[in-house]
Design brief:
Length: about 350
């Protein structure tokens, strides 16, 4: 298990990303969020004309009503750049202030280079670094953790943390047990390193907590890849096993985060869980004792967009004015690997 705020910075002065010579850790403050969903909407009813499923089954078992599907030729980088432009506008930050881009995706434009470098170019950013993180549905929490640690250590000042996916391209549209569950989309968050303050109510990311257990590799995977088949492959999932683990592992990751900060679950103003299935989301709320009005739910309109669900949900909460400066916001996610994690933020 990795906690983000346990260790003092190490001397990294040989690196081209030098750590500033201060042992006063900075804090990463969220300045704004943005989202992008492709125009095309695919409803359950339309899906039921193509495969043996029904609107009733999908709604009842998952809460999903529709999903967005990227247009032909619309790539992960297009979605990511659109979400990033909106996040920068919401944050009041110019693209040329960004010196770090961490993009979480399992559906990169190409095997390499990192899709984030294309986003960097699309935004006209010439400085700083851009790289991708791959932790499937937990990708955004992983990317947030990496960016937060770099900002805290002074390796960058302003970060774009993005979750962007075109899962429609890795779905087996003949497999009704998976193809009804996923959609395409992107969300982005702008983080800024702020000087440390002797204020226990200072805003910023309080901690992040990452976990993985490769014993579950075969429970949720893609049956292709450059080293195995040379093809992109399709999602294969033992849905029942994922479901069984998801509530427990995401709930305990949130419990770890609040305990780590000397808080209790009742201190959480807003819980933003990964959006895969309303039954999993409700299960986490019940297990933690967080009432429904404190849980952000977007799965009905977007389905599971993997690494994009959390920044999409954060943007919905921002735009609906459900999230306010100073709120305690808890994030949690679980996906293939298994890889899971949580983050606690004073917004
Ligand atoms: O981000 C992390 C990734 N994924 C997840 O978090 C997903 C976790 N798992 C789940 O959400 C649920 O396990 C599913 C939604 C995937 C499945 O729900 P379930 O209640 O576990 O259903 P099931 O797999 O037990 O299937 C029940 C029945 C089966 O028929 P029989 O064998 O009982 O006759 C399936 O063949 O439902 C059938 N079924 C469907 N029927 C209509 C499976 N998919 C469909 C479908 N439409 N799309």
């Amino acid at each position: 298990m990795l906690h983000s705020n346990d260790n003092p910075p190490t001397d990294n002065s040989d690196s081209n990303l030098s750590v500033k010579d201060s042992f006063e850790l900075q804090r990463s403050v969220v300045l704004g969020c943005g989202a992008y969903l492709p125009e095309r909407v695919l409803t359950n009813t339309e899906l039921s004309t193509r495969i043996d499923t029904s609107d009733e089954w999908i709604r009842k078992r998952t809460g999903i009503e529709q999903r967005h599907i990227a247009a032909d030729g619309e790539l992960t980088s297009d979605l990511a750049a659109a979400a990033s432009r909106r996040a920068l506008a919401a944050a009041g930050v110019a693209a040329d202030e960004v010196d770090l881009i961490v993009l979480a995706t399992s559906t990169p434009d190409n095997t390499f280079p990192a899709t984030s470098t294309r986003v960097q170019a699309m935004l006209g950013i010439k400085q700083g670094v851009a790289f991708d993180v791959q932790a499937v549905c937990s990708g955004f929490v992983y990317a947030l953790s990496v960016a937060d640690n770099m900002l805290r250590l002074g390796q960058a000042r302003t970060a774009l943390v993005i979750g962007a996916e075109v899962f429609s391209r890795i779905l087996d549209w003949k497999d009704r047990s998976t193809c009804v569950l996923f959609g395409d989309g992107a969300g982005a968050v702008v983080l800024r390193a702020m000087a440390p303050q002797n204020d226990s109510n200072a805003r910023g990311i309080l901690s992040t907590h990452l976990f993985s257990d490769g014993a579950y590799y075969d429970s949720l995977y893609v049956d292709g890849g450059p080293a195995s088949t040379g093809t992109a492959g399709f999602i294969r999932m033992d849905g029942k096993e994922v479901f069984r683990q998801a509530v427990n592992l995401m709930s305990s990751a949130v419990e770890t985060a609040v305990a780590h900060n000397g808080m209790s679950v009742s201190d959480i103003d807003l819980l933003v869980p990964h959006q895969a299935n309303i039954r999993i989301i409700d299960g986490i709320g019940r297990r933690l004792g967080v009432a429904g009005e404190r849980v952000v739910v977007t799965v009905q309109g977007q389905a599971n967009t993997s690494a994009a669900t959390i920044p999409l949900a954060l943007t919905a909460a921002q735009d609906d004015k459900r999230i306010h400066p100073g709120d305690i916001v808890a994030l949690c996610a679980l996906g293939g690997g298994f890889a899971w994690g949580s983050a606690l933020i004073r917004w």
